Amino acid sequence: MKVWIGAVAVLALAGCANHPLDCSMGIARDDCPPDTKGYANRQENLNNLAAAKELQASKDDAQCQSYGATPGSDAYVNCRVQLDKTTTDLQANAEKEKRQRLVQMLNSQNHQY
């Protein structure tokens, strides 16, 4: 019985280890301490994502203004909403196709064996 209690205690403590090896090796996790490579990689990924979103927003802004819509007007807001919806739909379709290709690949591997 003491062995079981000890094993459970060790497993519980291991679950609280906060991924120290992963974070120190550079794997980006949400809970990596600030002084690790994983934290630095996560921050870089977040900064890249923010920069990409800002670039897309400036492109959308320029496109809507090229149609003659002034920022703040109903036409401008509608244009930005439509462009955002189009981008979201394209991303969703790309993810769907990616999942379908993965399923096809897994199914073809299962048939080989």
TrEMBL record:
Superkingdom field: Bacteria
Q: What protein name does the entry list?
A: Lipoprotein
Question: What organism does this protein naturally occur in?
Answer: Pseudomonas fluorescens
